[in-house]
Amino acid sequence: MVERLGLAGYDNKSILQVDAWIDSPEFRAEWSHGNHELAGDAGAYLGEAIIKRHGGKWSFLPDGPRVTINRNGQHLIDPFGKVQKRATNGEVDQLLALVNLVEHAASQPKLDATAVKNAAYAALADSVSGRGGVSVGVFLFVVTVVPLAVFIALLFVTDLVYAAIGGVCGIALGVVLLRLVSGGPKAPAFPVRSLAFEAQLSIEPLLARLAERLEALGDRPTAAKLEEVAFYTAQLRELLAIVARRDTSPGRGYVGFDVYGAPDSWRR
User: Fold this and answer.
1) CA 163 to chain centre
2) What pLDDT, in 10s, does the model give residues 22-77?
3) Over the chain, what is the mean pLDDT?
4) Rounded Cα–Cα distance for residues 174 and 62 (Å)
5) Rounded distance, CA 146 to CA 23, Å?
């Protein structure tokens, strides 16, 4: 489509060019004879425009290809169906309207950096105190004192920037020390293959991932980094809740946390 119509890319002007092309004699001649090959080309272009502008990926489902976006819930978008509606109904079903709708429904949430960090620290504290016998106060003390101690120590051997980086890394060090002091994770006390069994074994690697992503935020985190930390924080909360309620319903069939960008497979 880009070569056929000489499009600049996937901006609004280019999408409107494809929209206008659907009314062209070339397209109408093929459409009137039941040949939907050109409509398929337009649908593929529209899907790529959505992916490049708003993220997502192609999913090949039994009822046809869809664009899947897992943000603010899961969205299944049918660009081929939109092109067919445009060809049938005319300008009332403009292609750009679908792109704008996706932007509205699956827009990046505006997250407050302080709130995201505080929620992550609170989840880490609850995971340690709830499973290892360390109080929340002790947790907050350690993750504050250890980074500060590392920062001060590094000031004697390096400059301020590297000392600050080392201080941030000290947060993870404090978490590790707490895990060692608390005796580490307890053995699963739930039936094998149950949801609580899988959740308890998945908490430890998830803690490591959350701590790692929390360190990487820096002073001016991007929206994507904040969203990733929020995703792992919510998942940790979900796993802790599953263990706390001793959920022995059938599990997912495997142990491990969901990676950022994937749907939450823990929710029931």
Assistant:
1) 31
2) 999 999 999 999 999 999 999 999 999 999 998 889 999 888 899 998 877 788 99
3) 84
4) 49
5) 67
Q: Of 84, 77, 118, 128, which Cα lies nearest the Cα of 100?
A: 77
Given a cut of 90, is residue 257 above it in pLDDT?
A: yes
The conformation of residue 182, written as its DSSP 8-state character, comes to T
- What tens digit of pLDDT does each residue of 70-108 get? 877 788 999 999 999 999 999 999 999 999 998 887 776
Assigned token pair, 44: 């593929």
Q: Exposed, middle or buried, 105 (CB in 10 Å: 0-12/13-18/19+)?
A: middle
Cα(131)–Cα(181) distance, rounded to whole angstroms?
12
Mutual angle of helices 160-181 and 113-132, in 10-degree steps:
30
pLDDT at 130 over 60: no
What are 121's two structure tokens? 């620290």
pTM of whole model > 0.85?
no
Contact indicator for 57, 51 with CB cutoff of 8 Å: yes
If you count DSSP H runs as helices and E runs as strands, how many of each does the chain have, helices first? 11, 3
Rama region for 223: left / alpha / beta (φ>0; ψ in -120 to 50; rest): alpha
Cα torsion through 232, 233, 235, 239, rounded to 10:
130
Q: Please report the sign of the dihedral spanned by the C-alpha atoms of residue 80, residue 82, residue 86, residue 91.
A: negative
Concatenated DSSP letters of 19-88: HHHTTSHHHHHHHHTT--HHHHHHHHHHHHHHHHHH--EEEEETTEEEEEEESSSEEEE-HHHHHHHHHH
* Dihedral angle computed from the Cα positions of residues 53, 111, 168 and 184, in that order, rounded to the nearest 10 degrees: -100
